[in-house]
C-alpha cells in the first residue's frame, strides 16, 4: 500500500492518540458506519440492475412515501450497528421511534442518528445522494434509553458526517477538531484521506435555494435573494451563480469544497412548520461540519447547534455555508423582528 496514503483506520488511530475525547468506542462506531456506507454505495451503484429503484409503497413518520433505497439504507445501518457494543440506541428519519440495541452485554455509551438516504427524489434520476449521521453521548445514567436521551442540542455532538454517493464515494467527518474527507478506493475497498482541515471561504458568489418557492418566502429571504439576483448593478456589486441539487448532502459537499450559501428557509406553504429539513439528523450534523470548516449555520435567528430540541423529528429553517453570507441573511432576519 502506498505509504503516502492515509487510510481511515490510520487517521482514526492517530486522531485518537492526539485527542482524548475520541474513545475507542467512538472510533469503532465511525469504522462501522463507514463500512455500512460502503455497503449502501454498492446498492446505490446497482441502480436498475439491483431492484433498488422506485417506491417502497410505504410511508415514513415524516409523511413521505419511502423509496426502496430509503428502506434498504436504513436496514443496512441498523444491522451494521446492532451488535457492535458501541451504541445504546439509534434514531432515523425512516423510523417512527428510537431503536434500542439488544443489550446482552454492557450497553454502549453512544447514540447514533441518521438520515440513511438523503436526496431520495434524486435516486431514480441518477443524481448524487447520500447518508448523513450524527453521534451523541448518552449522558443520562439510567439503565434504559428513551427518546429524551436523544433530545440534546447539536453542540453536544461527539461526531458528525456524511457519505456522498456521487462520481466519487466520499466520506466526510468531524470530531470537533476540523473536517476530513476520505475517498473510497473501489479497487481496494478502503477509505483514503483526500482532504484534511477543510476550510469554507468566508465570501462566495454562489447561493443554493429552491427558487420555485420564492413566492412563499419570508421577507428577509426574499430581500437577500433579490439582492443576489440584482448582480453587479445591485447593492451587492457582484454577480451571483445559483445551484440547487435537491440533495442536501451534494449541496453541502459543494459548499465545503468551494464555498457558497445554502438556504432551506421557513415558507408559507406549511406555516406551522419551522422548515422542511430535520434538526437532529440533517441540520445538526451539517451545521457541525460547516462550523468546523469555518462557516456558519443558523435558522435565521439563532445558531442551529444551540437549538434545544423538543422532538426527535422536529424541523428547522436552515441557512449555512460561507460565514459572511450567512451572517448577512441572519442580520436581515434580525432586522425584520
Ligand atoms: P430526504 O431525501 O432525506 O427526505 O431529504 C431531502 C431534503 C434535502 O436533501 C434537500 O435539500 C431537500 O429535501 C430538497 O427539497 P426540495 O425537493 O423541496 O427542493
Ligand atoms: Mn425523506
Ligand atoms: Mn435528507
Ligand atoms: Mn432521507
UniProtKB/TrEMBL annotation:
The catalytic activity, as recorded, is: beta-D-fructose 1,6-bisphosphate + H2O = beta-D-fructose 6-phosphate + phosphate
Q: What Enzyme Commission number(s) does the record list for this chain? A: 3.1.3.11
Q: What is its main location?
A: cytoplasm
Answer whether the UniProt record assigns the keyword Cytoplasm to this protein: yes
Q: Is Heme a UniProt keyword of this protein? A: no
Pathway assigned to this chain's UniProt record = Carbohydrate biosynthesis
Which UniProt keyword terms apply here? Carbohydrate metabolism, Cytoplasm, Hydrolase, Magnesium, Metal-binding
Enzyme class at the top of the EC tree: hydrolase
Q: Which PANTHER family does the protein's record reference? A: FRUCTOSE-1,6-BISPHOSPHATASE-RELATED (PTHR11556), SEDOHEPTULOSE-1,7-BISPHOSPHATASE, CHLOROPLASTIC (PTHR11556:SF35)
Family classification: Belongs to the FBPase class 1 family.
The subunit structure is: Homotetramer.
Q: Output this protein's name.
A: Fructose-1,6-bisphosphatase class 1
What organism does this protein naturally occur in? Answer: Sphaerotilus microaerophilus
Amino acid at each position: 500500500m502506498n505509504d503516502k496514503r492515509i487510510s481511515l483506520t490510520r487517521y482514526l488511530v492517530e486522531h485518537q492518540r492526539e485527542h482524548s475525547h475520541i474513545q475507542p468506542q467512538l472510533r469503532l462506531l465511525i469504522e462501522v458506519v463507514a463500512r455500512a456506507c460502503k455497503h449502501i454505495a454498492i446498492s446505490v451503484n446497482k441502480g436498475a440492475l439491483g431492484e433498488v429503484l422506485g417506491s417502497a409503497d410505504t410511508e415514513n413518520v415524516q409523511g413521505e412515501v419511502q423509496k426502496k433505497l430509503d428502506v434498504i439504507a436504513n436496514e443496512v445501518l441498523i444491522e451494521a450497528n446492532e451488535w457492535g457494543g458501541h451504541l445504546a440506541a439509534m434514531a432515523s428519519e425512516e423510523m417512527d421511534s428510537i431503536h434500542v440495541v439488544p443489550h446482552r452485554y454492557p450497553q454502549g455509551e453512544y447514540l447514533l442518528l441518521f438520515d440513511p438516504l438523503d436526496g431520495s427524489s434524486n435516486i431514480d434520476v441518477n443524481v448524487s445522494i447520500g447518508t448523513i449521521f450524527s453521534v451523541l453521548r448518552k449522558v443520562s445514567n439510567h439503565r434504559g434509553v428513551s427518546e429524551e436521551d436523544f433530545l440534546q442540542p447539536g453542540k453536544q455532538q461527539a461526531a458528525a458526517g456524511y457519505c456522498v454517493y456521487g462520481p466519487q464515494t466520499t466520506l466526510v467527518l468531524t470530531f470537533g477538531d476540523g473536517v476530513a474527507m476520505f475517498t473510497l478506493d473501489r479497487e481496494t475497498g478502503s477509505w483514503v484521506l483526500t482532504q484534511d482541515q477543510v476550510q469554507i471561504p468566508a465570501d462566495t458568489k454562489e447561493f443554493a435555494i429552491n427558487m420555485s418557492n420564492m413566492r412563499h418566502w419570508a421577507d428577509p429571504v426574499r430581500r437577500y435573494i433579490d439582492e443576489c439576483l440584482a448582480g453587479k448593478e445591485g447593492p451587492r456589486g457582484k454577480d451571483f451563480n445559483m445551484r440547487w441539487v435537491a440533495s442536501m448532502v451534494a449541496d453541502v459537499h459543494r459548499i465545503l469544497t468551494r464555498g457558497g450559501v445554502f438556504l432551506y428557509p421557513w415558507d408559507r406553504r406549511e406555516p406551522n412548520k419551522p422548515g422542511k429539513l430535520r434538526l437532529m439528523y440533517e441540520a445538526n450534523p451539517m451545521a457541525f461540519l460547516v462550523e468546523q470548516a469555518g462557516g456558519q449555520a443558523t435558522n435565521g435567528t439563532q445558531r442551529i447547534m444551540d437549538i434545544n430540541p423538543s422532538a426527535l423529528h422536529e424541523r428547522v429553517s436552515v441557512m449555512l455555508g460561507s460565514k459572511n453570507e450567512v451572517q448577512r441573511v441572519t442580520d436581515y432576519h434580525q432586522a425584520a423582528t
